[in-house]
């Protein structure tokens, strides 16, 4: 798109100096068409504070990052504008393989919906799957009379899970007491057994048990 705009500038200069009616008309049509290309919206608001110590190049790069991921002015489809709609991202990719006391194992398909621009599993999707599996794992040892509050989540991105591969996700309760439960979640490529992600999740039990 930037290349096209550079061509527009050159054509505008050509329009200003040419006397050839045919070339003038052709150049004018191209300029008009190119100007119809929508400019990307900025992620910065009118009152966004940008430090004077930050270079214009760095500020532009930050703006580009947020613009590319469409954080500003994004129109969400109706099915995602509701309670727990975030779960829709992973629900169709995750299948339960086995459930035992303190252990849950799932098979995850790395579909395009949860992949990044590098054609591997998106880091945010890893976190979403960890939370889902860890809660399920904790529920095998924590009674339904207790609510689980995620108090801490640690992630290690060791390698990458390529798109269109299957990953074995194993959740294991490390310890569970009166007021908290700690769950470890490992991601391994199904065909190679290679460890790609590790996580520890700490859940607080609500209400807190009396001493």
Structure overview:
With 211 residues, the protein is α+β, with helices and mostly antiparallel strands. The protein folds into 2 domains: 2-68, no CATH class; 82-206, Thiol Ester Dehydrase, Chain A (Roll), CATH 3.10.129. Helix content is 31%, strand content 27%. It has 5 helices and 6 strands; from the N terminus they run ααααββαββββ. It has helices at 2-17, 21-35, 56-68, 88-91, 123-139; strands spanning 94-100, 103-109, 147-157, 166-176, 180-189, 195-206. Strands 1-2-4-5-6-3 form a 6-stranded antiparallel sheet, covered by helices on one side. β5 (180-189) and β6 (195-206) form a beta hairpin. α1 runs antiparallel to α2. The longest helix has 17 residues, at 123-139. It is elongated and about 80 Å long. The protein starts with a helix and ends in a 5-residue tail after the last strand. The model has no long low-confidence stretch (mean pLDDT 81).
Write the layout of secondary structure elements.
Elements: H1 2-17, H2 21-35, H3 56-68, H4 88-91, E1 94-100, E2 103-109, H5 123-139, E3 147-157, E4 166-176, E5 180-189, E6 195-206
Antiparallel strand pairs: 1-2, 2-4, 3-6, 4-5, 5-6
Task: Indicate the radius of gyration in whole angstroms.
Answer: 26 Å
Which CATH architecture of the largest domain? Roll
Strand content is 25-35%
Instruction: Quickly count the domains.
Output: 2
CATH superfamily of the largest domain: Hotdog Thioesterase
Q: SS-based structural class?
A: alpha+beta
Q: What fraction, in percent, of the residue positions are helical? A: 25-40%
CATH topology of the largest domain: Thiol Ester Dehydrase, Chain A
Spatial strand order of the main sheet: 1-2-4-5-6-3
**SSE string, helices as H and strands as E:** HHHHEEHEEEE
Give the termini separation: 65 Å
Molecular shape: elongated
pLDDT under 50 segments (min length 5)?
none
Strands, total number: 6
Largest sheet: 6 strands, antiparallel
Q: Number of helix segments? A: 5
CATH C-level label of the largest domain: Alpha Beta
Pfam family, one: 4HBT
GO molecular function: fatty acyl-CoA hydrolase activity
Domain Thioesterase: 120-193
Protein name: Thioesterase domain-containing protein
